[in-house]
Each structure stands twice: as structure tokens, then as C-alpha cells.
Amino acid sequence: MGGALSQGALAGRRVLDLSRVLAGPWAGQLLADLGADVVKVERPGAGDDTRAWGPPWLKDGQGEPTTESAYYLSANRNKRSVTIDMGTPQGQALLREMAASADILIENFKVGGLAQYGLDYASLKALNPRLIYCSITGFGQTGPYAPRAGYDFLIQGMGGLMSLTGRPDGAAGEGPMKVGVALTDVMTGLHAAVGILAALAHRERTGEGQHIDLSLLDVQVATLANQAASYLVGGAVPRRLGNAHPSIVPYQDFPTANGYMIIAVGNDGQFEKLCATLGRPEWSRDERFVTNPQRVRNREALVALIHGVTVTRSTEAWIAAMEAAGVPCGPINRLDQVFADPQVQARGMRIEMAHPLAGQVPLVANPIKLSASPVRYDLPPPMLGEHTEEVLQCWLGLGPEAFAELRDKKVV
């Protein structure tokens, strides 16, 4: 491998990424950012499904659309793309040989789907007992729903998230609502990466690989966090509250003279500061609002009072006043405002990478700031099959003549 691929906390780790769409590729991208050599295996001529999920498309130097979708670009940085037809015996043999030298394999096929190719965990474990094999499915390897396909939107509904998201019953626009990002997929990708790192640590102690069984539904249920705990402890089914918090008041959006802002008061001291900033210090001494449990019980009355004041000044004026007083608050930004925010810019959350079609491709940075082994940005999201010959030579020692034969037979 070249020097660019030898840097980072996971330098020297080989990842065979057979996953598509978002959850698996998100985990692969995170490992790649941390220095692993991640090889993305795709179908010849088609590739990852998300390559076709546009518009928008990345534009070339003349402003014309390319074939690279924004969706695909979001989850495939720092990888190398290899096209192999796993439906052919030779393609299966190539993948088994690659798995034999890999540290990690990520896949999101249906349960049992890779067994017909000899690429299931049991088959590959026999070739490489040190292999860490991460399976991502909608419902896991066991249970009555195991054979079903799983999609983020479906899981947000089945896993309870949508029952907690949206305007409350009786309010304008009432009803359950999905989150505006495929959050279950992203959280599953993060849990996959954590599980893989834990398996690497286990392997360092024991020399043994293992199978990771990760389910979108499991992840969604697990990340209900305090809402799930409230139900299990208290027995009451949480209800939709729009932008309000079930256990903290005031902790929601409020209208201003020119829009909206968020007030996020987390304790009684902050509430006292809020009341003073609003010009209503007496509210902090009102027996209905003195403590947070009292404010929760008298939510509607307090929220109505605050509404009556916040509409008298602009969002900008209120935020300036509250920040000066130490009251947690902020705007509700559009994405153009997010990337123009001085804090977001100072943290370097937008990056540019060289791209063979576009010249430059804008991407969102990895948020992990490591002092000794920083995240690397070496390779833009690869074009379909861009690195096939390079990787097969690097991983398997395949020569030009052997590669040409595979190409002529449409195996790669």
C-alpha cells in the first residue's frame, strides 16, 4: 500500500466491505477515516444502490452533472472500489481469498444470503479464524422477523421513534413523524464500528475473531434512551410533544418577532436567569414554577407566559441577551446557515477533497478529533471499480495477465 493508506489509528487493518446503502457503508467510512484500508466491493456495471439515488449529482468542472450522487458521496470517503461479480464461481473464489487476508468483513445481506456463495461467517471462519465478521440486518440473525428486509423508515416506525416525534394529538399538524435523516441507519453504523473495535481488542488478547450480529431494530430500541427508561420505570407510554421535552420545562422552541428560537433550560438556576432576561423575575418565585417538577406539572401555563414575551423581540436580540445572561438558547438553522456558522467553520466541519471528475468534492468532516492519530482525508469517494486492479494486485498479488483474463470473463 502507498504511504497515504498507512496512516491513522487503524493503519494496517484490512476491511472487506460488502455492504450497500448507508448503515454498513457508514461504519466502513468511519473505519477508513481512522486509517483502515477499506475495500468496497460492488456489482460490476451497477455498484452500490445509492450511486443511482439522485439528484443531486456532483458537478464537473464545467458545472454539468456527473454520475456520482450526493447520497453515495456521503458515506464512502477514504475507500477503494473493487467490482467483482459474486454470482460467478471465480468471483466467489476471489472474495474468499480476500477474506482470508482481511481483518474485518462488513455485510448487510439478508440472513443467510451469503451462504450460497460460500461467503457466510462459518465458511470464512474456517479460512480465517481471526476474521471479525459484522452482519447488519433489519431484524438480526434470530427471531421471527429475521428473514424480513429492514429499512430505516420502517424501523423508525416499528422501533418507537416515530411515536415520540411529531406534534401532539390535538395540535395543528398532529401525527407521528420520521426524523429528517436516516438516523437509525447512521446509529447502526456507529454501533457497528464500536462493535468492530471491541472485537479487535478481544482478538488482540485471544487471537480469535468473532461474528457481530447487529440489527437496526435492536439499535433503534436501544437508542430510545431516557424515553425507554421512563416507560420501563414509570409504566406510562410517552406521547408526542413536538419540540418539547417530557421531563424538562422550558426546553423547546419559542416564537419570536421574526421567527423561532430554542430555549433549553436544564436547571432551576438557569430558569431564574431566563426569567430575569425576559423581564419577569417574579416567575422564578411563583410556586407553580420554582422547581423543574413543578414546571413540568404546570407546563402549559408557563409555556403560554413565555410565548407572550418572546414574540416581542427578534430571534437575534433574544439570543444575544440570553447568551449574555448564561441561558442556553440558539437558533433553528437551515443547512446553509449551519455551514456558515463560525463555530462549525472553526471546527472544520466542511472539507474539500480532490475528485477525478469534479476537481473538488465538498464533504462533511469526521467529528472525531484525535490528538495523536488524527482522522485522515486521503481518498475521495471512489468511482465504480476505480481500484479493482490495484487492490487485487495489492491484496492477492494478482498480475496483469490474470487480471485481464478476469476482466475478459466479466468477473471483475
Automatic annotation (TrEMBL):
Gene3D superfamilies: Crotonobetainyl-coa:carnitine coa-transferase, domain 1, formyl-coa transferase, domain 3. InterPro entries: CoA-transferase_III_domain, CoA-Trfase_fam_III, CoA-Trfase_III_dom3_sf, CoA-Trfase_III_dom_1_sf. Keywords: Transferase. The keyword Hydrolase does not apply. Pfam families: CoA_transf_3 (PF02515). The lineage of its organism: Bacteria, Pseudomonadati, Pseudomonadota, Betaproteobacteria, Burkholderiales. The keyword Protein biosynthesis does not apply. It comes from the Bacteria. One of its GO terms (molecular function) is transferase activity. This is CoA transferase.
